[in-house]
């Protein structure tokens, strides 16, 4: 009886140790490094905001195709992932799907 219990405990531990979970990761560059401003219109700019969310003040814009430095990331008030970016003298937040 003890052998059966011990064996089932070992199997349960082995199963728990091999169980894996999957986490969705947003597309885009790493949380630090760099990327390029990407818009649907080649003549437009990516808005840089004071914080992560569309309800925050616009600090400036990055022309399509220009390089930005990515300094970090967090989820914004809109539930989307935002990158903290620097472009020239502007440092603020841009939504992840506009940095590629």
TrEMBL record:
Residues 44-99 form the SH3b domain. It holds the Pfam family SH3_3. It comes from the Bacteria. Residues 1-26 form the signal peptide. Keywords: Signal. This is Uncharacterized protein with a bacterial SH3 domain homologue. It comes from Moraxella caviae. The lineage of its organism: Bacteria, Pseudomonadati, Pseudomonadota, Gammaproteobacteria, Moraxellales.
């Amino acid at each position: 009886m003890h052998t059966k219990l011990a064996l089932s405990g070992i199997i349960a531990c082995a199963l728990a140790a091999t169980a894996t979970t999957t986490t969705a990761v947003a597309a885009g560059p790493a949380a630090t490094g760099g990327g390029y401003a990407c818009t649907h219109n080649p003549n437009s700019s990516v808005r840089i905001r004071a914080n992560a969310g569309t309800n925050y003040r616009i600090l400036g814009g990055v022309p399509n195709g220009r390089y930005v430095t990515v300094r970090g990331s967090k989820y914004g008030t809109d539930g989307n992932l935002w990158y903290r970016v620097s472009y020239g003298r502007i440092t603020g937040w841009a939504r992840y799907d506009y940095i590629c």
